[in-house]
C-alpha cells in the first residue's frame, strides 16, 4: 500500500510543480518549495510513519510513606534500579507511572508500601517491598461514640507487633496490654459519668488522645392509647419528650374522632394497631376502655408483640387479670404459658420475652418516670 501511495503522491507533486512553473517567474522558486513541503506533510499524515523499538525490562524504585528519597536511592543502588520516582502531582499514581514509563516492569516500593487499591493500578508489573521499620506509635484505633451511660466501651487498634500499649485518662485505672504478632490490641472500660470521657493511648514515647461522647440513656419509646383525654397523659408525654424520648399518643375524642400526637420521630398511631407499629416502641400504656375496643386482629398483633418482640404493657383501670390471648405461644426455653396483662398496685407489667421490665414509679418531683427494673418472674 505504501508504494502506490508514494507513486500517487509523486505524480501529484509533479503536476503541482508544473502548474507553479507555468504561473511565471515571479517567486517561482518559493512557490515550488512551499508546494513540495506541503505535499510532504500531507503524505506523512496519510502514511502515519512509526518507529518500532524493543523495550527491555527495567527496575524502578517508588518512594512511599515512611521512606526518604535518600533511603530510596540507597535501595535503588543495591537493587540496580534505573530510576527513583516520587508519586505526586505530575505522577499521581502507579497507573500514570506505567503509562508514561512502560519500560519499568519491576517496581520496588521503599517505605511502608501503598494501599491495595493503588497496587491494582500497577497492572502486570511485578512489585517488591523494601520495608522500613514501623514507628513506635499507635497505627490505628477505633471506638464507639456516642454511647449511653453504663455501656462498656471497647477500644481496638493496631500498634507495632508485640509492643506494650498503655491506656491512661482521668478517672480510668491504668491499664496495659501487649499487642499480638499482628499488632492488634483491645481495651475495655466503663465511662463513669455523662460527658466527654478522654483517654490516652501510649506506646513508648508516643501518645495519642481520644474521647468518647457519653450521654444519658434515653427514656423508653412509649405508645399511649387512651379512650378519653387525661391530664396525667399530657404530663407524661411532655416529660418524655423533653428528655428526648420517642412518644406517641392516641386519644379518643368521640366515637368517630381520635387525636394523635407524636414527638421526637415517633410514628403517628392513626390506623389500627399493627405489629410493625408496636415494634417501634418499648412500652404500651393502654386503658381498659381502649383494650376492650381492640379488634381481634389488633389483639393478635399485641399478643405477638408482647410474646415475641418483648413489648412491655401497662394497663390502667383494669382488673387483677385481663386475658389478652388465651391461646398459648411458644416462648424461649420451650416453656408454654398464656400471655396475660396484669394490673398490679405499683403499676408494673412484665413482658414474658427477653426485654427487661420497665417500672412506672412516682418521682419526688411529681412526675412519672421509667426506670429499668430488671427481670422478674
Describe the protein's topology.
Blueprint: H1 2-22, H2 28-47, E1 58-63, H3 69-79, E2 83-86, H4 94-100, E3 104-111, H5 116-119, E4 126-131, E5 140-142, E6 147-148, E7 153-158, E8 164-168, E9 175-178, E10 184-189, E11 195-203, E12 206-215, E13 222-226, H6 231-242, E14 247-252, E15 258-263, H7 275-278, E16 283-287, H8 288-292, H9 296-309, E17 312-316, E18 321-330, E19 336-342, E20 357-362, E21 368-374
**Tally of contiguous helical segments:** 9
Give the oligomeric state of the chains in this entry, treating copies of one chain as homo and distinct chains as hetero.
Answer: single chain
Contiguous uncertain segments of 5+ residues: 319-377
**Mean residue pLDDT:** 78
The helix/strand series, from N terminus to C terminus, equals: HHEHEHEHEEEEEEEEEEHEEHEHHEEEEE
Radius of gyration: 40 Å
Described by the principal axes of the CA atoms, the overall outline is: elongated
Write down how many β-strands occur, each being a DSSP E stretch of 2 or more residues.
Answer: 21
Strand content: 25-35%
Which structural class matches the secondary elements? alpha/beta
Distance between the termini: 97 Å
Order of strands in the sheet with most strands = 6-12-11-8-9
Range of helix content: 25-40%
**Main sheet, how many strands, which sense, barrel?**
5 strands, mixed
